[in-house]
Task: structure prediction
Amino acid sequence: MAHNAELGRRGEQLAVDHLEARGMSVLERNWRCRLGEIDIVAEDGGDLVFIEVKTRSNGDYGHPFEAITPIKLARLRRLAIAWCEASESSAVRIRIDAVAVLVPAEAPALIEHLEGIS
Amino acid sequence: MPVARTRSVALLGLAGSIVEVEADLSSQLPAFIIIGLPDAALGEARDRVRSAAINAGCPLPSRRLTVNLSPAALPKHGSGFDLAIAVACLAAAGEISPQSVDRVVHLGELGLDGRLRPIDGILPAVLAAARAGHETVMVPAGSATEAALVPGIRVVGVASLLEAAIWHGGEYDEREVETVPSATTATGPTAADTGIEVPGDLADVSGNDDAVEGMLVAAAGGHHVYLLGPPGAGKTMLASRLPGILPDLDADAALEVASIRSLAGMRPASGLSFRPPYEAPHHTATAAAMVGGGSRLIRPGAAARASHGVLFLDEAPEFPSAVLDVLRQPLESGTIAIHRANAVASFPARFQLVLAANPCPCGNDGTAECTCPPIARRRYLGRISGPLLDRVDVQLRVPRITLAALRAAGEKPRMSSADAQAKVIDARAVAAQRLRGTPWRTNAEMPGPWLRGAGRLHPGGRATAALDRSLERGGITMRGYDRVLKVAWTLADLDGAAVPRAEHVTRALFFKKGIER
Result:
């Protein structure tokens, strides 16, 4: 478990680097409430973006994106609303993105980014 | 290129329509959606295609793939669209050339290991693609020989999805895979009993000269036959010799026969068979087994499979009368139309009917052993309805062979199937020559009014004196009159006579009425 948590943290850091390189500004990381956790909240040219990061060390258990099920996506939507209420944000345009990070043992990490997945 | 399209074929009966398979790749969470009226087996293509692509070595992208089968209103069945769906997805993903994929019609089912499995109905599907003007069709390697029977289209046989992807310009490493052979499905009949093989020789029939002549006449004129006789008299033997004395099929007919068989899951082992088919359904057959049926995929029945050949109904009175009467439509029109809520499928059914019956339920009619009261006998034969029998030109009594007849027959030379076939071919050529310029080719097909009217084929007063008398006395109907004339023409053709003489007409009358006593 410790290994996976560490892998997740590493993946999230890689995702943040990727997003910032794309010109997005990260507002918050690992925001928690009783509904669950949002990995990254960022701002992208006026859009408020909630980002789910999935990290895998190999493809044995399928593509990282395949782990984002409709149930998880629905929870992500509720979390987005909860974040807006908690932070009293008045953002008009809200987007949910997914970032897949593949970190093989002996190769550079592979990052894929899907915008507006719901 | 996020959208790619290719083509496949949806079969309805023997008629195939080209279906366009479009795949769209969008940057969304991984999903695989098939739209456009798929049935359950086709809907499962979703899982088959994704697994097959991974295991074959050319995985699909982990994005949202939407596959549309159009025209969307046309119902589509089965697993034959797998290959088209997979290559359309690969082309949408940019892994293979969309232009190359667009030009080819794809048919075949995928296994989870990425190999291609042969499907039923390859032949009619390829035929439909060729008729629609397509130049190339890609089929499972196991079906390539079958598909190659269709002239005028290039057939590409591939053993796996990977091979298909490489053919379309995909940059993958080749892998050796074992071809899935074209075996008949477990539920379908095996290649051995597809019935095309010629059973026995006509020379095996001893005695029964009338019956042999009757079969010869039936073969030459394309007439339907009714054989009435006790068990063991040789009815089945006679019927099974009929395909052997029929001439070879022409290329179109052979292709049609093979197409129907392909659809029924009886895949041709090698090459096109030019022998007429022979179907002998058991008397427990249902109406659906006889003409074809099925709620989604409409499969041909025995009557369609016997098209261009012989449909033999042994123990005809044992068939439910509803089953016998479904044959009236195909006997009249030469086609079978099967109506379902969402579609009408039609199959060709230009078969030659041979009915065989025992004269009574115990089968010992005419001997001391028979225990059937007359009413039981009447009822038994009454099960074959009048309208059906009315369409049968040659009706014969096949008696049990007596010892004397057997001895007498032993000394006479018997007609072999080859001799009989030669006579049949000659007689049919004469008839075809006479009927040139008409839509008919055999004597049995000629309509009665045309025969006596525009066709000017009534041989005239003296020859038909006996027949005219029979009509006058009410011994025969007008339709029966026409039928006797047709058989008389066939007898004349076999005899080499230019027009039927009195002897031909009386002989024809015997063949029509000989069964009555």
Summary: Residues 417-434 of chain B form the longest helix (18 residues). The longest strand of chain B covers residues 15-26. The two ends of chain B are 80 Å apart (CA to CA). Chain B is about 40% helix and 15% strand.
